[in-house]
Write a structure and sequence with these properties.
Elements: E1 22-28, E2 36-40, E3 47-54, E4 62-66, E5 79-87, E6 91-105, E7 110-131, E8 139-161, E9 167-189, E10 199-201, E11 210-214, E12 219-223, E13 231-236, H1 241-254, H2 257-263
Antiparallel strand pairs: 1-2, 1-13, 2-3, 3-4, 4-5, 5-7, 6-7, 7-8, 8-9, 10-11, 11-12, 12-13
Length: about 270
Amino acid sequence: MGCGSSSVPDVIIPDPQPGDKCHVLFKKTGMFARDQNVFKDCDKTQKWLMMDKEGSLFSNPTYTLENFVRAEGSKRGQCLCYGELEVTKVKIYGIKVKDESCSSASDSSDEEETTEIVKMKWKQVVKAKYYSDKSKSTLLAAMKVSAKGKAKKVTTTTTYEDEEGNEREKTDIDITKKVNKVKYEITECKGEDELPVVNLKGKPNKSAEKLEWSGPLFQAEIGSNGWGSQEIEIKTDWKNPALGMLMGYVTAKEISPDDIKDNVVVW
């Protein structure tokens, strides 16, 4: 289980049923926790479910959405939906390198500065799968997320003499990343001949007023001040509401465009 914990509420609310209109609030169980409490109707007095997270984004994490029906002595409830991520190796291409150098003189010392600028393009794919239980007996849905972006690395090396006349060198490195395009695609969905779509509205790189995800499975949004928030609201009226809740949370809070950009390793 993740770093947080969640006690069983005094009243256990029945599980969501197929087709229920659910509007829930995911909120961390503690400031530094990975786990989330899920509140019905976004009412913090109605603790309904819990989501247990194991691992971080680029270590292929897992997510378990469960109720509070626990066997005696157990800290785990019944699993309603189980998800896992697979992050593929990033693809780097279009590399361009530029070198610059300059010298500056002063009354006390001479300095020589060399700057190397490396620009590149990157592509990252994340695959998400959702199951009926932790044993993965039934695949409920699968999603493929494809992200493309650019990165720049500026390495500045300065050579100088210290007060004793010894030659010294210092190096400063600045890395910036930008995501240009992200596509969310449902590749499998149990019982569906026509695969549901996931639409994304808004510009990434934390430059949009908000990002909005919409489609038959779930609806979610993150406002301009919400990237670091410990809470997020998810809506779903999908035939399997637990799937809609978990997919909505993972998509908007774990594999948003800015999450992928911030975590992609280009150097």
